[in-house]
Specification:
It is a single chain. With about 375 residues, this protein is α/β, with parallel strands linked by helices. It has 13 helices and 13 strands. A seven-stranded mixed sheet has the order 2-8-7-6-5-3-4, sandwiched between helices. The chain has a four-stranded antiparallel sheet with strand order 9-10-13-12, covered by helices on one side. Strand 5 (about 140), helix 6 and strand 6 (about 170) form a beta-alpha-beta unit. Helix 3 (about 70-85) runs parallel beside helix 4 (about 100-105). The longest helix is centred in the N-terminal third of the chain and has 20 residues, at about 35-55. The structure holds pyridoxal-5'-phosphate (PLP). The site of pyridoxal-5'-phosphate has 13 residues, from helix 3.
Length: about 375
């Protein structure tokens, strides 16, 4: 049976170039710290990847610290800044990924959580009040784009407020990288987290991109790798795959217009079948590939299972690590009612998504709606 994969925000398909780079790295022996030819070859692969990941976010290669993913990059940013004594409190938004929210809560320092508007965008007035009343120096950690709704955060304004109040600024750009053009000097951030598997690289590879002069505390001790911030022999194959994916993602940014049109087609199909469906954050700037919707009377559990049986891979707005459908803290922070939260489905598209994939979705969704006419709210 033909399947359509519409869950790029969970993980994207591995790009051929990434697979080839990993296979090439895996077929060679060499520790990037060794001085011999084999070691130098591994080092070259690592540094080539560093250049490509830097280019993805418009940064310099020296700014890239490789990690084992976005979660680790977020941990390193928050804990590293606090443990180094650079900041004495954290300011995060209510819609951050758990790797920011839970890390912040476990840091042992004051944490203030800034709410979002009903459109899923950080409330700038409250952010300003929080920063104005913060005693000491804060680290502001706000994501570039939300993973569930795709809502872009008002980055220029956030950066301006952080600067105005002398705060350090970190952004979880895991979902934005490779989908919107990121250019470091314009971003005016101190640290940025990215992840390999959201852009077609391998799972378990990521990076914290940070200002070269920022002396955060190490995350792992016991070796000089990655500016002494993350000790341990590097996973060269994963890093090489990440680099190859970053290069393709940078080159393919223009394709996001096509993806945007496909998302429009998908949302049109939803609205045509269920005119009372709610598309979250539809009124604000969103990632071109993401839609999160709910239809009164249809539960996410039912939708997920029925669509899966019809060949569609989508996720609930809030699939948690156990694979169960949990309650979305993002939608809750937007003030969405429990009934709609329980029906939220996210479809996220990417470079390999085709019109046929969207049509497959439209047919499956139509079938499902027809089967459930009785339970659908008027
Ligand atoms: N931040 C955001 C916004 C994410 O969507 C994710 C993954 O879902 C992460 C961080 C974690 O990244 P990784 O899976 O590479 O640890």
């Amino acid at each position: 049976m033909r399947r359509a994969y519409l869950d790029y925000n969970a993980t994207a398909p591995l790009r051929e170039a990434a697979r080839a780079a990993m296979m090439a790295a895996m077929s060679e022996t060499g520790n990037a710290s060794s001085v011999h030819a084999e070691g130098r070859a591994a080092r070259r692969r690592r540094e080539d990847a560093r250049e490509k990941v830097a280019a993805l976010v418009g940064a310099k290669p020296e700014m890239v610290v490789f990690t084992a993913g976005g979660t680790e990059a977020n941990n390193l940013a928050l804990k590293g800044a606090f443990r180094a004594g650079l900041v004495d409190g954290l300011v995060v938004s209510a819609i951050e990924h758990p790797s920011v929210l839970e890390t912040a809560a476990g840091c042992g320092c004051p944490v203030r959580v800034v709410p979002v508007t009903p459109d899923g965008v950080v409330d700038l007035a409250i952010l300003e009040t929080v920063l104005a009343t913060h005693a000491g120096r804060a680290l502001v950690s706000i994501m570039m784009a939300n993973n569930e709704t795709g809502a872009m955060q008002p980055w220029r304004e956030i950066a301006a407020l952080a600067r105005k109040y002398g705060a350090l600024l970190h952004s979880d750009a895991v979902q934005a990288a490779g989908r919107v053009r990121l250019a470091w000097p314009i971003l005016d951030a101190d640290m940025l987290s990215v992840s390999g598997h959201k852009i077609g690289g391998p799972q378990g590879a990521g990076a914290l991109v940070m200002r070269e002069d920022l002396a955060i505390a190490p995350h792992l001790d016991g070796g000089g790798q990655e500016r002494r911030l993350r000790a341990g022999t590097e996973n060269i194959a994963a890093i090489a795959g990440f680099g190859a994916a970053a290069a393709e993602a940078s080159a393919g940014l223009a394709d996001m217009e096509r993806v945007h049109a496909l998302r429009g087609r998908l949302e049109a199909a939803i609205v045509a079948q269920t005119p009372n469906a709610v598309i979250f954050a539809a009124g604000v700037d969103r990632l071109a590939n993401t839609t999160c919707f709910a239809c009164p009377g249809l539960s996410a559990q039912l939708l997920l299972m029925a669509l899966d049986l019809d060949g569609l891979a989508v996720s609930s707005g809030s699939a948690c690590a156990s694979g169960k459908v949990g309650r979305s803290h993002v939608l809750a922070a937007m003030g969405v009612g429990e009934a709609l939260i329980g029906g939220a489905i996210r479809a996220s598209l990417g470079w390999a998504t085709t019109e046929e994939d969207i049509d497959l979705f439209a047919i499956a969704y139509g079938r499902l709606v027809n089967r459930n006419r009785n339970t659908l709210a008027a």
